[in-house]
């Protein structure tokens, strides 16, 4: 994959997280301690984040660096997301499904 495509996809993932957090570009730029113009360029895939800023995105925006860079969700993160989106009264069903899946893998 071309470097520019990677930057475009990273920018899209960053934009989705910002919108999920109901933040403006200005608010996000302030959170990441960068200018609004620079942040906009990052979302459009024209500029790249430094390692320090990627870690800041992780700490302040709860966006996993692996997901930000590759779009891949790690298995533990995926389970956390599934349980987070599940209503409390249905968690026991998910737990039973996981137990069943574990038995199938043996």
UniProtKB/TrEMBL annotation:
Source superkingdom: Bacteria
Single annotated GO MF: DNA binding
Record key words, sorted: DNA-binding, Transcription, Transcription regulation
Matching Pfam families: HTH_19
Entry's Gene Ontology cellular component terms: cytosol
HTH cro/C1-type domain segment(s): 14-68
InterPro entries: Cro/C1-type_HTH (IPR001387), Lambda_DNA-bd_dom_sf (IPR010982), TransReg_Diox_bact_type (IPR050807)
Record carries keyword Transcription regulation: yes
Name of this protein: Anaerobic benzoate catabolism transcriptional regulator
Species per Swiss-Prot/TrEMBL record: Eisenbergiella tayi
